[in-house]
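Before the break, one more example. Copy the sequence into your notebook; we will annotate it together after we see the structure.
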Amino acid sequence: MSSDCFNALPDDHRETARSALCAAFGSVPISAIAPIAGGATSASVFRVETGGRRYLLRMEGQPSPLRNPHQYLSMRIAAEARIAPRIHYVDETSRVAVIDFIEQRPLEAYPGGPHALAQALGVLLARVQATSVFPVFVNYPDIVARLFSHVRRTGLFAAGMLDPHVERLEWLGKVYDAGTTRLVSSHNDPVPNNILFDGERLWMIDWESAYRNDPLVDVAIMLDGLARSPELESALLRAWLGCAPDKALFARLELVRALTRLYYAGVLLSASAAASSVTDDTDLSVPTVAEFRQAIRAGRLKAGTPQTKHILGKMFLASFLSGAATPGFDAAV
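Here is what the structure looks like once it is written out:
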């Protein structure tokens, strides 16, 4: 291996990377290593070139208190089903993986346009849920509540500002019954950045949140991120189910959608709290989705900044209470 290639890696990652790549490719020389920017993951991700092919080297960051211990097993199951890219090496102790690198094209380039993409996404979710079942980790409402409790402890908002959200979450906890549905393999974070199109088919990446869950969690997230009209929603749901959804499913989807929106509010606001000096915010007013997108286009807001994540987090909070459409996930990273 060329030692010069490893200069692209932080000092504390070099030996882990060297060991992983040696285990994956033996003595085949590594010709290039380059960091890959973007995404909301805390992992360090690098493109590796060797033997005339490209691979992805992924090394986890510092484990969080909510770290899912089953992510690598879930990823293996998904890779065996050819839903996740092929795995060449995994070390769960060192929290490192080497997988195929997907040369992606924009989702907007999917043949047949948005309707065909929505159908393909529904089929993809059905394939995930048909795999050997992922391990159990946590009841979804519980992890939403834990994350939201963290947000409340940060001091980001003034006392009492989030009381209506607490009351609605408590009500959801009473009416949501996890035992009324069969739990299935679930990615739990199928936002647009985690769905790749290679010019022929779709792949799912970043399995760090994958565990057994309510089948509607992935559906709710994907509808908010990638099927943002009644027509596309219908296409995705029909492709996922293989038939038209009934009233009971829509009623449960409304409950699950509220939980997923509060979850992403928690993710965004936790990031905002960690990276900004905002405290005791007393303003929960939010722009409309159209106003928010115009601010991004005009450069008044920049995707991925603490300010934008703070506004996005408040928009997801508003959606949690009102059921109104979310702004999606594109500006979060």
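Residues 247-275 form the longest helix (29 residues). The CA atoms of residues 164 and 321 lie 8 Å apart. Try to locate both features in your own notes.
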